[in-house]
Specification:
By secondary structure, the protein is α+β, with helices and mostly antiparallel strands. The chain has 18 helices and 23 strands. It has two domains: 249 residues, 4-Layer Sandwich (Glutamine Phosphoribosylpyrophosphate, subunit 1, domain 1); 183 residues, Rossmann fold, CATH 3.40.50. The protein is 30% helix and 25% strand.
Length: 460
């Protein structure tokens, strides 16, 4: 089981920019997407147009692979326009093929429209059937395309693209962050529950929308604020309008942004990601103390929590693994035997760090259990006397329906095994999970969706 296949993945990251001074934005989108690459590594795309040019001047380029593999300087120089959107994708709905890559761009009788989407809608079949009754022909299998066509349909019945987006948002259910581009406007939408993140930034004459604040930092932009759950924000050349009609009082932010998905240098809904993960490690040390010589984290997801555990327990923090950052996407292997070696390709133990030591190994989650068991074997082979595993999330028991690839119950090791059985199965000397009550230590009173742990789904 390859390293990436035993981790959870976010569906994608989105980025959009409108430059009121008329400057080309493709390079800025490129750097923004590079900063969001952790949210999806299967495909990427950029769509741009010129707000001063003729209607229908939209240009789009997308392909399979990483951002720096898809966009050369020559390609970026051809994407001319002062308004644009970009996307990095990990598929949770639809196959991992070029036809499902984003942005989704369409021409219809009112003009052109492009969209990027993070999340998953739960009433996709209902909307798809309704659209097909109205003559829509779909080219991919994603809910992103369904949302795009729904906006186009609504535009035939409304006076503006903003109204069409509003009417569409009223109809879709689930977790989503959208950026929609028409020839002269950029519109951002966040689902009413706040399940998916979206923030606003500015730089000189530009306004930017992005999944995470780290993307704003990457392009030298100032963070303005998080888009409110349910808010629709419309950005034009010198004007910003806000529609709060769908904002409600029930917010349930995805806890896994703070546990794993978001980058350490991001802040989402007022919570600094690095601090949240350090606090999770501190909580683990209080709940599951153990005598040991060294605390180590699984790169990169367990590092901050490991530092928190070490701080609270007064056990030294150390680096046990060397991560190979240059092997690319190790899950693309031609044979099963090669796939099985993916953990060793990605991570190597530093023997001098762990030899003859009792190790506390921190990671963010256990999904199927295959990766953590291989890491324990590697540590003990390198001379570790004991390996005590601590996980900075509770046991995964239920699937997610909002754009996170938590698999079905039968693939979740915790859904059919006790903690003691999991500990024995992965070869650990002890095992401790973060308690759900400790989420308050991580994020304070921020209202959360934690359905993958407690089955309390905010919307179906």
């Amino acid at each position: 089981m390859p390293y990436e296949f035993d981790k959870l993945h976010e569906e994608c990251g989105v980025f959009g920019i409108l430059d009121s001074k008329g400057e080309n934005v493709a390079n800025t989108i490129y750097y923004g997407l590079c900063a969001l690459q952790h949210r999806g590594q299967e495909s990427a795309g950029i769509a741009v147009c010129n707000t001063e040019g003729p209607l229908g001047n939209l240009l789009c380029h997308k392909n399979m692979g990483l951002v720096n593999e898809i966009f050369s300087p020559d390609i970026l120089s051809e994407l001319t326009g002062n308004i644009g959107i970009g996307h990095v994708r990990y598929s949770t709905t639809g196959e991992s093929t070029i036809k499902n890559a984003q942005p989704i761009a369409i021409n219809y009788f009112k003009g052109t429209l492009a969209l990027v989407h993070n999340g998953n809608i739960t009433n996709m079949e209902e909307l798809k059937n309704s659209l097909q009754e109205n003559g829509a022909i779909f080219h991919s299998t994603t809910d992103s395309e369904i949302i795009t066509y729904q906006i186009a349909l609504e535009r035939t019945k409304t006076n503006s693209i903003e109204e069409a987006v509003y009417e569409t948002t009223r109809k879709i259910k689930g977790g989503f962050a959208l950026i929609i581009m028409s020839p002269q406007k950029m519109i951002g939408v966040r689902d009413p529950y706040g399940l998916k993140p979206l923030c606003l930034g500015k730089k000189n004459g530009s306004y930017i929308l992005a999944s995470e604040s780290c993307a704003l930092n990457a392009v030298g932009a100032e963070f303005v604020r998080d888009i409110l759950p349910g808010e629709i924000i419309t950005i034009q050349k010198n004007d910003i309008k806000n529609n709060y009609a769908l904002c409600n009082q029930t917010h349930t932010h995805c806890i896994f942004e703070y546990i794993y998905f978001a980058r350490l240098d991001s802040t989402i809904d007022g919570i600094n990601i690095y601090d949240a993960r350090v606090h999770a490690g501190e909580a683990l040390a209080k709940s599951y103390p153990v005598e040991a010589d060294l605390v180590v984290g699984v790169p990169d997801s367990g590092i901050a929590a490991a530092m928190g555990y070490a701080k609270q327990s007064h056990i030294p923090y150390g680096i046990a693994f060397q991560k190979n950052s240059y092997v690319g996407r190790t899950f693309i292997k031609p044979t099963q035997n090669e796939r099985e070696t993916a953990v060793q390709i990605k991570l190597n133990v530093i023997p001098s760090t762990v030899k003859e030591k009792r190790i506390i190994l921190i990671d963010d989650s256990i999904v199927r259990g295959t990766t953590i068991s291989k890491l324990i074997i590697m540590l003990k082979k390198a001379g570790a006397k004991e390996v005590h595993v601590r996980i900075s999330s509770p046991p995964f028991l239920y699937p997610c329906y909002y754009g996170t690839d938590v698999p079905s119950n039968h693939l979740l090791i915790a859904s059919k095994h006790t903690n003691e059985e999991i500990c024995e199965q992965i070869g650990a000397d002890s095992l401790g999970y973060l308690n759900i009550d400790d989420f308050k230590v991580m994020v304070g009173n921020l209202p959360l969706c934690k359905a993958c742990f407690d089955q309390q789904y905010p919307v179906i």
